[in-house]
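Annual report, structural modelling task.

Input specification for the zinc ion complex:
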Amino acid sequence: MRLLFSMRWLLAAIALIIAAAAITVSRTHQPRRLAPLVADFSVGGAAPALSGATLPALTGTLRISVAPQALPASASLDAITAELYTALAYVSARTGTTPAGPITVQILADPQCALHGAAYTQSREVHVTTCAAIPPARAVNILAHEFVHQLAHDSYGDSHLRSDPILLEGWATWGAGHYWLGQHATFRDFLGGEAPLPLVANHLGRPAAEMNTLYYQWASFVEYLLVTYGRDAFDQLYRSGNSTPGSADYQGVYGIDLATLEAAWREWLR
Ligand SMILES: [Zn+2]
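The model returned the following structure:
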């Protein structure tokens, strides 16, 4: 009887431990709220042909066109132009790069209301695809990231076109700063210790949420490299990739391989 009584307590204790573990697992697996971004890709090829139905608003560095139905009817083109200049000035200061020439901005309408960005850095053109139901500020957030791709090409030259995607997208996301951080001060803060995906991963073809997670992880890794080893070494690293994730010469630049750097970054995140 006494043994049975003890067994009951033991089983109850085990059940409690399992329940606590299940709660912990469900808490750690809760998706973090991400900033309002959906997807992005950066390509070096030619921009696709556009329909002629755009409204140009040319001002200095930025040559902005807005397609019909791309923005809410209440949106002011002057206000969006001012916001895009503010975004360009911000990312330019944050990355220490000034544009090497004018940048064409195409604000396009997506019939499915999907938010996407693209940078055609050889032709100095950035696109955002949005729709009238999406607040224009979200398109500006995307374009801040695309501007950094253009500035990266301006800064690193053609080596930008074959850079390691970890650095290419990490730099564009880090460079967009508060446009992607919301109320968080740093990408380390944003991640809050959670980095569920490996750094060496392909971002293309992933669901938007996973792609976003990867971009934030890569931005945080870039932040770690900048804080730990400085900008000059980062610049050297950025130029050394060959288009595949993990291809930059981490060992040559830092004397440390990527797996060891990733482990150190994950420790730094905690
Ligand atoms: Zn990008």
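The mean pLDDT is 84.
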